[in-house]
Design a protein that fits this description.
By secondary structure, the protein is mainly α. It contains 31 helices and five strands. It has eight domains: 116 residues, Rossmann fold; 67 residues, no CATH class; 59 residues, no CATH class; 67 residues, no CATH class; 59 residues, no CATH class; 60 residues, no CATH class; 60 residues, no CATH class; 52 residues, no CATH class. α2 links the parallel β2 and β3.
């Protein structure tokens, strides 16, 4: 091995220190054979240097030889057995490196491997990035770059490694290693440093093109194609789209190897041409299916391709399309460069489809096709622009058997046919405003609208309508006849003319409202109409009088049955008449009743104008019955009568309202046996009454503390309280308790 140094002393020291270094190696790993070292420099004569080289040549198989030199061994050195060189100090000259490397890699029968040693000093504590960027590694990059020009295998490995870095960027996959580069690291250096060194080595000795090509390969694997979208970035932030654009722009400067690599991925060198051919292919398929090239604007081809938009773009770009593309488009059936004409043909195509489905061309103004095309608006524009349409366009529309230029006249004629049919059936043209034909046509509304639009109708239309039997232009006169007709049928059915206000006929005519309006307008009606209404059985002008008499009649029957006129608010008669509400209404409307009505009500037994007085009398009546039955007026708060009247609550209410009761009411309450105003006094009296019952049943007043009556009254607790409050009880209460043999102290 020959080692290269920058100075003579360093070369001499290196040769002499090799022996010491070998002695430090353990016997297990120490190399076998004789170790010979020597050093040459420019200070020696050519003869001396030749002797040293001869000594190196003469080493036998298994011996180890090292010849260090400082700037003196260059061309002309011939040592076939030399199998390695070591660049101990940096060597920057590309020529020097190539010559030195040439010594080690020269083929000979006695060797199969040439070794190049590149030692690099790494300081403790220095991170990988800082170390790799330092000048210590510069000789490494220089030597490997020199080797690439002599070793295709090494060059291929390095380029592939760089490509794999791009291909596996952002993944946890480990990129492979090298077969010709070995990295030995001391134990003090982290193993990850080797990976960083390999990556940095490749980046300094290969072109970045390989890395970007790896990114493109990864994109192709992930997406299944290499159509990189504009402004596309990888997850790691690499702008792959910009690189792809750069390859297309620099195609003439790329090496044949790089062009071949891109071609192997199916690289598209002219995406605009490809996109155009793709769109044209869809258009050809459309023509084969539909028979023409009139593609709707919103049409989507297979794969949601926006073929409609593509066609629009071709028309817009006509002046810049190459002749070949213009010819290919014009060769398609139905192709048109005029966008307006194409748009018209699109609408016409939709209209044909509509007629085939609906069997008519009366397209509603708001109608849209399933694809969203506003066919209703298009049809409306054709009628409006009739005078400006091209002759061939008019002819095409006229050729459609269902086409109508004046849709309003057509609709009027159809409505007239409905009226004609009605007159033939009924013998007159007095169509009720609510009348609907069997097919759902609102003929009544149409007739009303003709009267309203009379001044806008043509003379011919007026004449046609006026020729019908019973046709009336006066809407008021027509409305009267319609109402009379409905009222006549109602009287025939109900035997009276008292039509309820909300009543509607079967054909939804609001007869109740019509009757009410005519009662209100009595003074405005002509005599013949008044006479006609009064001729109906049961007709009345003032329904309130009739309704009042009905209510009084029901009230009289109630008094005859119940013996009084105190009708509950919720009471209804057997025929569901709300008599209770009617009675309440008479009280609230007392000031608006006639004198006769007041007298007739007051003549009824039990009639009261004040509902609250009536309720109070009812409550007092129930309380009186309770006193007669129980012997006292001490009603518990939860007590309720069998008929649901809550007597307990009523009694509590009287106590709370004492200040608002009349003197007579107060006197009548106090006259009842056991009545008390004070609720505390009442509570004591209730407890005393329970105790009296207990003594009568048990024969003593020793009530257990936990004892409760059958109705859950806590009598034991009440007795205990009396003993506890003995000193606070009045003499009268003490006396009453002791009269029951009450025991004040239980032993």
């Amino acid at each position: 091995m020959i080692s290269f140094h920058s100075r003579v002393k360093r070369a001499e020291s290196f040769a002499s220190e090799i022996h010491d270094a070998i002695n430090m190696i353990s016997n297990e790993h120490r190399p076998k054979g004789t170790v010979w070292t020597g050093s040459v420099s420019g200070q020696m004569s050519a003869h001396e240097r030749r002797l040293k080289l001869d000594q190196l040549k003469e080493l036998t198989q298994g011996d180890i030889g090292l010849l260090s030199n400082a700037r003196c061994l260059s061309e002309g050195v011939d040592v076939p057995s030399l199998d390695g060189v070591a660049f101990i100090d940096p060597k920057s000259s590309q020529i020097d490196i190539v010559q030195a490397v040439g010594r080690a890699i020269r083929l000979s029968e006695s060797k199969s491997l040439g070794t190049i040693v590149l030692p690099v000093f790494i300081e403790n504590g220095t991170d990988a990035e800082a170390s790799l960027q330092s000048s210590h590694f510069k000789p490494v990059w220089n030597v490997i770059n020199a080797l690439k020009s002599h070793d295709e295998v090494l060059s291929f490995e390095l380029d592939k490694y760089r490509t794999d870095l791009g291909k596996k960027a952002g993944t946890s996959e480990v990129v492979g290693s090298f077969s010709k580069i070995i990295i030995h690291l001391p134990q003090t250096v982290d193993a990850s440093f080797a990976e960083s060194l390999r990556t940095y080595l490749v980046e300094r000795t290969t072109s970045s093109w390989n890395f970007w090509f790896g990114l493109l390969e990864a994109f192709a694997i992930g997406e299944g194609h290499i159509k990189v979208p504009n402004r596309f970035e990888t997850d790691e932030g690499y702008r792959l789209s910009s690189w792809v654009i750069g390859q297309r722009s620099n195609r003439g400067n790329l090496t044949s190897d790089r062009v071949s690599k891109l071609d192997s991925l199916g690289f598209d060198w002219d995406p605009f041409k490809t996109a155009w051919e793709y769109g044209f292919l869809h258009l050809v398929n459309y023509v084969e299916q539909e028979g023409d090239a009139r593609v709707p604007h919103s049409y989507l081809a297979e794969g949601n391709y926006k073929l409609g938009r593509w066609v629009i773009e071709q028309r817009s770009n006509k002046d810049i399309l190459i002749p070949e593309r213009v010819s290919k488009l014009e060769a398609l059936a139905g192709w048109a460069w005029d966008a307006n004409k194409a748009a018209w043909e699109e609408g016409y195509l939709y209209l044909i489809n509509y007629i085939q489905q609906e069997k008519h061309a009366k397209v509603p103004d708001s109608y849209r096709t399933k694809s969203g095309y506003s066919l209703g608006s298009w049809v409306k524009r054709q009628r409006k622009n009739r005078d400006t349409l091209l002759p061939e366009q008019k002819q095409k529309l006229d050729s459609l058997g269902e086409w109508i230029w004046d849709v309003y006249k057509a609709a009027w004629d159809e409505s007239l046919l409905q009226l004609t049919g009605y007159v033939e059936q009924q013998g007159h043209a007095r169509v009720p405003s609510s009348y609907i034909a069997e097919d759902g046509f609102r003929l009544g509304r149409w007739v009303v609208s003709q009267r309203v639009r009379r001044e806008r109708l043509s003379p011919e239309q007026k004449s046609t309508l006026g020729s019908f039997e019973g046709w009336i232009w006066n809407s008021n006169e027509s409305a009267w006849d319609e109402g009379i007709s409905h009222l006549t049928r109602y009287v025939e059915m109900a035997s009276h003319a008292n039509v309820p206000g909300p009543y509607k006929t079967e054909d939804d005519y609001k007869l109740g409202q019509w009757v009410s309006r005519n009662r209100v307008k009595r003074n405005e009606l002509p005599p013949e109409q008044i006479a006609m209404l009064e001729s109906f059985k049961g007709w009345v002008w003032d329904v309130r009088v009739t309704a009042w008499d009905k209510g009084l009649s029901c009230l009289i029957r109630y008094v005859e049955q119940q013996g009084h006129a105190r009708v509950p608010n919720s009471f209804k008669t057997k025929d569901n008449y709300g008599l209770g509400l009617w009675v309440s209404m008479q009280r609230s409307r007392k000031d608006r009743l006639t004198i006769d009505q007041k007298l007739r009500l007051e003549s009824l037994d039990g009639w009261l104008w004040c509902a609250s007085n009536e309720a109070w009398e009812q409550g007092l009546s129930y309380l009186t019955e309770y006193v007669e039955k129980e012997g006292h007026a001490r009603v518990i708060s939860s007590y309720e009568l069998e008929n649901g009247f809550k007597l307990g609550r009523w009694v509590i209410g009287q106590r709370h309202r004492r200040d608002s009761l009349t003197n007579e009411q107060i006197s009548r309450l106090e006259a009842l046996n056991g009545w008390v105003w004070n609720t505390l006094e009442l509570a004591w009296e209730v407890g005393f009454s329970y105790l009296a019952i207990y003594v009568e049943q048990e024969g003593h007043a020793k009530v257990p503390n936990s004892y409760k009556t059958d109705d859950s009254y806590n009598l034991g607790g009440w007795v205990k309280t009396q003993r506890k409050r003995r000193n606070q009880l009045s003499p009268e209460r003490k006396s009453r308790l002791e009269a029951l043999n009450f025991v004040w102290k239980i032993i």
